[in-house]
Specification:
Layout lengths: L10 H20 L22 H18 L1 H7 L3 H15 L7 H32 L5 H19 L2 H11 L12 H40 L7 H15 L2 H11 L3
Helix pairs in contact: 4-5, 4-8, 5-6, 6-8, 7-8, 8-9
Length: about 260
C-alpha cells in the first residue's frame, strides 16, 4: 500500500472517536463504583413571575447581549474596514488568475487582522469612554451606547461620499443636516457601506489593468506564433507572479489600503 492510498480521517469522525473513548473511560471509572457524593452542578431553566422591575431589566439586558453576539459578524463586516479589504483581495486574486491561491481562509484572516489594526484606535476610544465607565457603573447603558457611537460615527463619516449620504437623506425625507452630528446613524450606516463598496471596486479596477495588459500581450504573441491551442493563462500566469513579486505587490496594496483609512 502506498502512502498516498492512506486516507486521513475526517475531523468529525476523529472527534466522534475521541468522545466515544472518553465515555467508555468515564463509565469504566464510575460504572462499577459510583462516587458517594457528586459535586456536579444541576442546571435548570424555569419561567417565573418577576418580583420587580429590576428582574425584567436584567432579562432584557441578557436578551440584548445575546442578540448583539448573534449580529457581531455583521457589525464587523459592515461598520468597519473589513468590506474594502476582502473585496480588494478577492479581485486581486481573480486578476492574477491564481484560482484559489491564496485560499479564502488566508484572505479572510488577513482582512480581519488588518481590520483590527485599523479599528484599534476606535475600539480603544469606545472602551475608555463607554465600556469601562459602564462597567464601573458611572454611566447608564443608554449613555454608554451614545458615547460608543461617537468614535464609530466619526470613523464612518470620514469614508462616506457626499453623494451617497445625500441619497439616503433624500430617501428618508430628512432636511439637509448642518453638521455631521445631525446625521442619523441609520442614515450613516448604509451610506458608509455603499461608499466602501464603490471604493473597493475602484481599487479592484486599477489592479486589473496591469494584469490585463500582460494577458493581451501574451495572447497576441501566441496568436502570431500560431500557437492557438495553447491556453494563454499558462504562459501569462508566471509573468503575472513575477511582476507582482518584483514590485512587492503585497506591500504596496496593503500599505495603500491601510493608509486610505488614516
Amino acid at each position: 500500500m502506498k502512502i498516498q492510498d492512506i486516507q486521513t480521517p475526517r475531523p468529525c469522525i476523529t472527534v466522534g472517536i475521541i468522545m466515544f473513548i472518553l465515555m467508555v473511560l468515564v463509565s469504566a471509572v464510575y460504572g462499577a463504583n459510583p462516587p458517594a457524593s457528586s459535586n456536579f452542578p444541576l442546571i435548570s431553566i424555569a419561567m417565573d413571575k418577576a418580583k420587580g422591575p429590576e428582574d425584567v431589566s436584567v432579562a432584557l439586558q441578557i436578551f440584548a447581549a445575546l442578540t448583539l453576539l448573534s449580529i457581531a459578524p455583521s457589525i464587523l463586516i459592515m461598520l468597519t474596514s473589513f468590506t474594502r479589504f476582502i473585496i480588494v483581495f478577492s479581485l486581486l486574486r481573480q486578476a492574477m488568475g491564481t484560482q484559489q491561491m491564496p485560499p479564502n481562509q488566508i484572505l479572510i484572516g488577513l482582512a480581519m487582522f488588518l481590520t483590527f489594526y485599523v479599528m484599534t484606535p476606535v475600539w480603544q476610544d469606545v472602551n475608555q469612554n463607554a465600556v469601562q465607565p459602564f462597567i464601573e457603573k458611572k454611566i447608564s447603558s443608554e449613555q454608554a451606547i451614545d458615547t460608543a457611537l461617537i468614535p464609530i460615527r466619526k470613523f464612518m463619516y470620514k469614508q462616506i461620499r457626499e453623494k451617497d449620504l445625500a441619497l439616503f437623506i433624500e430617501i428618508a425625507g430628512l432636511k439637509r443636516p448642518d453638521t455631521p452630528a445631525d446625521v442619523p446613524t441609520m442614515v450613516m450606516i448604509p451610506s458608509f457601506i455603499i461608499s466602501e463598496l464603490k471604493t473597493a471596486f475602484q481599487l479592484g479596477f486599477l489592479l486589473f489593468i496591469p494584469f490585463l495588459i500582460i494577458d493581451m500581450v501574451v495572447a497576441s504573441v501566441l496568436l502570431a506564433m500560431g500557437m492557438m491551442m495553447l491556453p494563454p493563462i499558462m504562459i501569462s500566469l508566471p509573468f503575472k507572479l513575477l511582476l507582482f513579486v518584483l514590485v512587492d505587490g503585497w506591500h504596496l496594496i496593503v500599505g495603500s489600503l491601510v493608509k486610505g483609512f488614516v
